[in-house]
Amino acid sequence: MKKSTKFAHIGRPEIKAGASVNPSVMRASTLLFDKADDLYNGKHRIYGRHGSPVHDALKQAFCALENGAGCTLTPSGLSANSLSILANVKAGDHILVSDSSYGPIRNFCDTLLAKFGVETEYYLPNIGGDISGLIRKNTACILLESPGSLSLEIQDLPAIVKAARAHNVVTIVDNTWSAGLVYAPLDLGADISVHSATKYFGGHGDLLFGAVISRTKQLARLVEKAAMALGNSTSPDDAYQVLRGFRTLVTRCAQQEQTALALAKWFAKHDKIKRVIHPALTSHPDHELWKRDFTGSACLFSIVLRPCDEAQVLALLDRLKLFAKGFSFGGFESLVIHCDPQLTRSHDPKFGGPLIRIACGLEDIEDMKNDWGQALEMLKIKESA
Questions:
Q1: Cβ burial, residue 357 (10 Å; 0-12/13-18/19+)
Q2: The pairing of beta strand 335-338 with beta strand 324-325
Q3: Pairwise pLDDT comparison (3 vs 324), residue with the higher score
Q4: 90 in active site
Q5: Contact residues for 233 (Cβ-Cβ < 8 A; gap 6+)
Q6: Spatial CB neighbours of 257, under 8 Å, sequence gap ≥ 6
Q7: Which of 99, 156, 174, 238 is catalytic?
Q8: In whole angstroms, how far apart are CA 186 and each of 68, 76, 257?
Q9: Given 102, 123, 183, 240, which residue is catalytic?
Q10: pLDDT, tens only, 314-361
């Protein structure tokens, strides 16, 4: 069954007279029982923090998306990433994190995780199987984000998984970029796939949510126990909205993928653009890896402007009418950010000009081109560029 069909029907109530199309939202903190033994016999959900039927339906949808054995829902994409790490580390451990990973998770590793005695080492995204040389006796997990959050490097996941398994190291993949539709980390051997459901699944820029999907029931239980200990909880209203987002996910993502690729090709011909970073373009250094492991692309890519002053970059972005400045992607609206102010790397990626990340929404491609055309027309690049 195709995913578009599956997601239109998964996690729905039984169809009968007067049935709703989606599970009802149950808002409750206290859950009541008529028998005292039911509070402690382990057969029932005993508190609202532990979820509701709509949460169960959403977990089912995420497991179907990623071919997972279990899912834990979280309040945000960042909390999904941090939970997946915390569930697999202890004081004195060492973890490996891609140098291209999401900035807030880097902050989590460098601050809170370090405070509790876990050392983080950042590796080059193109390391592949050579990551085995960085694995120590106390290495607990490897966190990948493929493509990278800003610079969109594709990692050789099968090679990294092979090295990790040889040393009993858990592999965690942030799979937000692909929405799980064009990339299947668990099928490629990864242990855990993480999503910021805020993005494509919310789809409207008006909620925060996350999901941790595990390849085995054992890993899923480990994550769930950590979530329980941390007091992890998600709103039933938000869970309902994310489940509803599944219904149109495939259709929305297909259009955004096509639009982003068309805009990327348009940028590639513009004389004020130094480089377009989109994995589906043959110019991308990891294009062959993308062809091997992915079945499509997504709404997000980056461009590198020809060298120009910071003031010119900001003025360019402010001239855009359709692309608002904002930190997200996967919603109906197009967004753009200047990446240089937040770039923190242990290894210099050497972009050679200002890095701009672009998220395509559901607007018409010709309107997008016109918007960028008028904005780029007034951009003043340095003469030496």
A1: buried
A2: parallel
A3: 324
A4: no
A5: 48, 49, 75
A6: 182, 296, 297, 298, 299
A7: 174
A8: 7, 21, 22
A9: 102
A10: 999 999 999 999 999 999 999 999 999 888 888 877 888 999 999 999
The CA distance from 61 to 73, in Å, is 11
Phi, psi of 309 (to 5 degrees): -70, 155
70 exposure class (CB count in 10 Å sphere: 0-12, 13-18, 19+):
buried
Burial (CB count <10 Å: 0-12, 13-18, 19+), residue 199 = buried
Which residue, chain included where needed, has tokens 């200002």?
354
**Among the listed residues 322, 316, 318, 305, the one whose alpha carbon sits nearest the alpha carbon of residue 368:** 322
The full set of domains in the chain, from first to last, is 3-244 (3.40.640.10), 249-377 (3.90.1150.10)
User: 186 near 325, Cβ under 8 Å?
Assistant: no
Higher per-residue confidence, 49 vs 306: 306
**Which residue shows structure tokens 């210099």?**
348
Q: β-strands 335-338, 119-123: how paired? A: unpaired
> Is residue 174 annotated as part of the catalytic site, yes or no?
yes
With contact defined as beta carbons under 8 Å apart, do 274 and 245 qualify?
A: no
- CA–CA dist 303, 269 (Å, integer): 12
What is the Cα–Cα distance from 383 to 308, expressed in whole angstroms?
9
Residue 49: active-site member: yes
Q: What is the pLDDT of residues 28-44, one digit of tens each?
A: 888 888 898 988 898 88
Place of tokens 């945000």: 76
- Is the pTM for the entire model greater than 0.90? yes
- Pick the catalytic residue from 3, 6, 12, 49: 49
Q: Which of 199, 247, 252, 306 is catalytic?
A: 199
Whether 141 and 172 have beta carbons less than 8 Å apart is answered as: yes
* 102 labelled catalytic: yes
